[in-house]
């Protein structure tokens, strides 16, 4: 910011404003009122709008013999407040360079007035001032990164991280304990004035940023238990057994001490000579309560089959 700023009163004539612009070799003059409050800016662009080509002394209409003579500008009899651009675009004294540059780009202006809370003029920022930050020496950047950021803010040992600066490019090489420290070191270094790029070559022991997802229980199989007509969440009559491999309850066999179930081979009937009688030579017979047990497993107790 430039604090040596020349301003003009609101009632100053256009000729006086033009004289200030010429003598100070500047492109704009802040205009203040009787209370020293900034009300606008007069630039060469604003002055060009007030000039009528037909009123130029010796004008361009004076013939071809007068074209090589210097043109004498006759300024109109107007006050600076009548031709100024306002209200002015300002920033506070504590605004960062990034905020100032973004505001200048948004409004397409070449200067930005710095004012206090009462709109009193404190200084001016130009595009040239914004570019001065990139003219910092590499040694100055190195000292700020190594001393202010790594030592004072992050409290790192000098031997843990090496800093090198070459034409505004900062290279960080070393080893730290946590990943969050690496991200903080890179982010703070990028914010240093004059730094154009940060090369990150830091390693770490613990990743305290990425979270490990909690283990999820295995999903239940909707088709589990289809062979005995049960839902996967309904225990069988003989109880359940839990398998550690899958974590899913599997049905126990139909047989239990209370309901013995089995299949026996029924011998065919024979005559007195020992020859089997009839066409069948043998049959399988369901013993115990297997029929009743199968019915209970297949049909709900409240709705037994009528033809069973």
List keywords for this structure.
single chain; 308 residues; alpha/beta; CBS-domain; Histidine-containing Protein, Chain: A; 4 domains; 3-stranded mixed sheet; 8 helices; 13 strands
Element-by-element helix/strand order = EHEEHHEHEEHHEEHEEEEEH
Question: Total domains, how many?
Answer: 4
Under CATH at level 1, the class of the largest domain stands as Alpha Beta
Q: How many strands appear in the DSSP assignment?
A: 13
Query: What is the rounded Rg?
Result: 47 Å
Q: What is the CATH architecture term of the largest domain?
A: Roll
Structural class from helices and strands? alpha/beta
Distance between the termini: 100 Å
Reconstruct the topology from this structure.
Elements lengths: L7 E2 L4 H11 L3 E5 L5 E6 H7 L29 H4 L6 E2 L5 H11 L3 E5 L5 E6 H5 L6 H16 L7 E6 L2 E10 H12 L6 E10 L33 E3 L6 E3 L9 E6 L16 E6 L1 H9 L10
Please describe what this structure looks like.
With 308 residues, the protein is α/β, with parallel strands linked by helices. It folds into four domains: 8-56 and 72-133, CBS-domain; 136-206, Histidine-containing Protein, Chain: A (2-Layer Sandwich); 213-251, no CATH class; 254-308, no CATH class. It is 24% helix and 23% strand. The protein is built from eight helices and 13 strands. It has helices at residues 14-24, 44-50, 80-83, 97-107, 127-131, 138-153, 179-190, 290-298, and strands at residues 8-9, 28-32, 38-43, 90-91, 111-115, 121-126, 161-166, 169-178, 197-206, 240-242, 249-251, 261-266, 283-288. The strands form five sheets. It has a three-stranded mixed beta sheet. A three-stranded mixed beta sheet has the order 4-5-6. Strand 1 (8-9), helix 1 (14-24) and strand 2 (28-32) form a beta-alpha-beta unit. The radius of gyration is 47 Å and the shape is elongated. Residues 248-252 and 279-284 have low confidence and may be disordered.
């Amino acid at each position: 910011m430039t604090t040596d700023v020349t301003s003009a009163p609101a009632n100053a004539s256009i000729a006086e404003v033009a004289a200030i612009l010429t003598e100070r070799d500047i492109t704009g003059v802040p205009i203040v009122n009787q209370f020293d409050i900034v009300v606008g800016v007069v630039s060469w662009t604003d002055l060009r709008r007030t000039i009528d080509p037909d009123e130029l002394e010796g004008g361009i209409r004076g013939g071809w013999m007068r074209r090589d003579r210097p043109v004498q500008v006759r300024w109109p009899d107007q006050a600076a407040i009548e031709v100024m651009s306002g209200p002015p675009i300002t920033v506070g004294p504590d605004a960062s360079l990034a905020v100032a540059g973004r505001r200048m780009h948004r409004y397409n202006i070449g200067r930005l007035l710095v004012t206090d809370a009462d709109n009193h003029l404190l200084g001016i920022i130009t595009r040239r001032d914004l570019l001065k930050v990139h003219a910092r020496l590499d040694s100055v950047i190195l000292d700020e990164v190594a001393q202010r950021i790594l030592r004072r803010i992050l409290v790192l040992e000098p031997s843990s991280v090496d800093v090198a600066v070459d034409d505004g490019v900062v290279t960080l090489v070393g080893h730290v304990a946590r990943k969050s420290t690496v991200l903080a070191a890179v982010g703070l270094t990028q914010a240093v004035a004059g730094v154009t790029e940060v090369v990150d070559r830091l390693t770490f022991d613990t990743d305290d940023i990425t979270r490990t997802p909690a283990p999820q229980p295995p999903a239940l199989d909707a088709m589990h238990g289809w062979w005995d007509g049960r839902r996967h969440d309904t225990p069988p009559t003989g109880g359940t057994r839990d398998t550690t491999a899958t974590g899913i309850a599997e049905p126990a066999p139909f047989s239990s001490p209370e309901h013995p179930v089995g299949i026996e081979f029924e011998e065919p009937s024979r005559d007195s000579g020992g020859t089997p009688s009839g066409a069948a030579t043998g049959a399988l017979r369901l013993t115990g309560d297997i029929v009743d047990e199968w019915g209970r497993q297949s049909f709900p107790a409240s709705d037994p089959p009528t033809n069973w």
